[in-house]
Amino acid sequence: MSNQATLSRPVSKVDPFSHAFLHDPYPYHEALREAGPVVWLEQYGIWTMARHEQVRDALTDFQTYCSSAGVGLSDFRKEPPWRPPSIILEADPPLHTRTRAVLTRILSPAAIRVLRVTFDREAERLIDRLVEKREFDGVAELAEAYPLKVFPDAVGISEEGRENLLPYGSMVFNSFGPRNELFNQAMENAGPVRDWIMSKCSRAVLAPGGLGMQIFDAVDAGELSEAEAGMLVRSFLSAGIDTTVYGLGNALYCLASHPEQWKILRENPNLIRGAFEEVLRYEAPVQTFFRTTTRPIDVGGVRLGEGEKVLLFLAAANRDPRRWERPDTFDVRRRAAGHMTFGTGIHGCVGQAVARLETEAILTALASRVASLELAGEPKRRLNNTLRGFDILPLRLVTA
Ligand code: OVM
Question: What confidence tens digit (pLDDT) does each residue in 377-388 have?
Answer without folding.
Answer: 999 999 999 999
